[in-house]
Amino acid sequence: MRFEAAPEIVATGYAAIVLALLIAAWRSRLQIFMYQALIMLGVTAFRISMHNFYSLKSLVPGSLSYAVAAIVILAAGIPLAFAWRNSNPWVNRTKPGGDGRLTFLVRRPEQPMFFVPVVLMAVLLAIKMPGGMITLAWGAEGVLVFLLALIAKERSFRLTGLGLLLLCVGKILFWDAWQLNDPTARYLTLIGVGAILLVVSYLYGKNRKALQDYL
């Protein structure tokens, strides 16, 4: 991939390799494939950050679409990471001395497979979206993460979604309200984030009993 594919496609190819390794780990139940998947996850994140994101500023053709494709492919690995964890009984066993960081990641691969795409997408939105639209984009991402967290029933995912929404509120209070010169953009940002918060509060209230076990 590094030497045969076009520079903008390399990260997408790396993400596909991560997905293939996750499938191999899940089907074979061999830890070595999961170690390789996590290493390639780091390599892919580095490539997206250092090359694809940098190319966005120079308007290289296809840089945005391939960056988004790579992030989406990485996010598609989250269900495979859950499948790996659920298909290996030893994953839930704790050692007397505790686990090292790398061992923890192998036992809970859904954590890095979730946080890497979420962070990369937040950075991508900050690079490409203009002005106050960044706040709306982060709010939409926060709602999507929260909805996925309800399905996955994972506490860290849910807190991440709420954290993104709190970041939007903080950005409005301490930045957008003072930096946006266009009153229309300012009001649209406030209305949009307010609507997003109402949706999340409705979902939280509707699923309160189910969430008590995970918060």
Structure description:
By secondary structure, the chain is an all-alpha fold. The chain folds into two domains: 1-128; 132-215. The chain is built from ten helices and no strands. The chain has helices at 10-28, 31-57, 63-75, 77-86, 101-107, 110-128, 133-152, 155-179, 183-206, 208-211. Helix 1 (10-28) runs parallel beside helix 4 and helix 7 packs antiparallel against helix 8.
Helices and strands in order:
Elements: H1 10-28, H2 31-57, H3 63-75, H4 77-86, H5 101-107, H6 110-128, H7 133-152, H8 155-179, H9 183-206, H10 208-211
Helix pairs in contact: 1-2, 1-3, 1-4, 2-3, 2-6, 3-6, 4-6, 6-7, 7-8, 7-9, 8-9
What is the CA-based Rg, rounded?
19 Å
Secondary structure tally: strands: 0
Percent of residues in beta strands? under 5%
Number of helices: 10
Mean pLDDT: 81
Poorly predicted runs are none
Q: How much helical structure, as a percent, in the residues?
A: over 70%
Q: Structural class per helix/strand content?
A: mainly alpha
Q: What's the overall geometry? A: flat
Could you state the order of secondary-structure elements as H and E? HHHHHHHHHH
| End-to-end C-alpha gap | 42 Å
Largest sheet: none
**Domains counted in the coordinates: how many?**
2
